[in-house]
Amino acid sequence: MGKPEGFAYEGRADFHGTSCHVVSHWESWTSLYIAVEDGRVRGMRSGALITPKLKHSMIALLGRKGER
């Protein structure tokens, strides 16, 4: 699905009652919900999701890409 550098950690969120880590892949507009308890993927959302944390992460990612 992509290189690890293409993903950004978005923090934690509940996905259908399960506490998850959220990671987003910018090129495919996909967010994965990974259970905190067992590390299994519990869900996926696709499409543009704009939140303050997402905007901050996007700016940070673009800044890192610009440093190369």
List the helices and strands and how they pair.
Elements: E1 7-15, E2 18-25, E3 30-35, E4 41-46, H1 52-67
Antiparallel strand pairs: 1-2, 2-3, 3-4
Could you walk me through the main structural features you see in this protein, from its secondary elements to its overall organization?
With 68 residues, the chain is of the alpha+beta class. The protein has one domain (8-63). Helix content is 24%, strand content 43%. It contains 1 helix and 4 strands. The chain has a 4-stranded antiparallel β-sheet with strand order 1-2-3-4. Strand 3 (30-35) and strand 4 form a beta hairpin. The model has no long low-confidence stretch (mean pLDDT 82).
Q: Return the string of H and E elements.
A: EEEEH
Oligomer: single chain
Q: Structural class of the helices, strands and pairings? A: alpha+beta
The helical percent reads 10-25%
Strand order of the largest sheet: 1-2-3-4
Radius of gyration: 12 Å
Stretches where pLDDT falls below 50 for ≥5 residues?
A: none
Q: How many domain regions?
A: 1
> Beta-sheet strand percentage?
35-45%
Number of helices: 1
**Major sheet:** 4 strands, antiparallel
Between the first and last Cα atoms, what is the distance in angstroms? 22 Å
Mean pLDDT across residues: 82
Structure summary, number of beta strands: 4
Overall 3D shape: globular
